[in-house]
Amino acid sequence: MIIKVKGYLTYRDVIGQREVEQRDNTPVLFLDFIRELATRIGGEHGCALFDENSRTVGQSVAIMLNGIHYNHLPERLNTVLQDQDEIAVFPPGAGG
């Protein structure tokens, strides 16, 4: 199973565009994938991506699965990832 991950704006340098291959085809929850990605990234970007204390996605990022914000998925963070899914990570929006 291959999952595509893209980082945008400040996450572009940290994540870039990568494909993560899961060789054993064990089902992977979206939440577990994000937690592992945050661990790989490390530093302040990793901490912003996943909050270990609340065990959820950080409030300062927007994460989409196949173009849909995770809060709008039927199973939200408990969605089981599929082959060729695409995850996009965005920093918080700014403006005025």
UniProtKB/TrEMBL annotation:
InterPro entries recorded: Beta-grasp_dom_sf (IPR012675), Mopterin_synth/thiamin_S_b (IPR016155), ThiS/MoaD-like (IPR003749)
Pfam families: ThiS (PF02597)
The protein, known as: MoaD/ThiS family protein
